[in-house]
């Protein structure tokens, strides 16, 4: 499912295995469990934490290919459960007392892109993979909280249009040019290395993690409000 490695004050969460890393309750719970370990490792008091950074990456061709729709097909409640669990995971990331970096080593589609976008920085490999909001192509409506996150993180209306109303498969260099991601790199290894270098740079600032998280929560308050409203998109084909 996922592993956690610590290198000094850098935590590396890796989605393991060669598969698509589809977001079902089991995988989401595994990621949340790792984040709880990270939070516990750095929190010293209610008001302070050791300077740290989190990197999330994945093995194989995919960073994450979105929700596990095959698992969800058997009942309406299953997709609602996946959405509820992903909302909780994103809220965990927003409240984590440290900078967060997604090192996207392959395709990041739909909810998989939302997972990556929930980090403070998004780095991608340029030799393989794309970001892709597939809902228009597969005839699914978007949860309102997905839209709130994209509106908060993607500043250009044209870039949001191309993601959501063209369902473009956006490669790394184009994503940089559109302001969707932070930087592009030549391979998966170089992407993770760049994420580690960025993490070390941020750790050297010695910020108070709880102050960092409080500012992030204020910055993304509209996203958190939508998460709390418990609103989901209505499926049209599942």
Automatic annotation (TrEMBL):
Does the UniProt entry include the keyword S-adenosyl-L-methionine? Answer: no
What keywords are assigned to this protein? Lipid metabolism
EC number(s) recorded for this UniProt protein: 5.3.3.8
Protein's pathway: Lipid metabolism; fatty acid beta-oxidation
Cellular-component GO terms for this entry: peroxisome
Does the keyword Kinase feature in the UniProt annotation?
no
InterPro entries, alphabetized: ClpP/crotonase-like_dom_sf, Enoyl-CoA_hydra/iso
Reaction(s) this enzyme catalyzes, per UniProt: a (3E)-enoyl-CoA = a 4-saturated (2E)-enoyl-CoA; a (3Z)-enoyl-CoA = a 4-saturated (2E)-enoyl-CoA
Specify the protein name: Delta(3)-Delta(2)-enoyl-CoA isomerase
**What organism is listed for this UniProt entry?**
Malus baccata (Siberian crab apple)
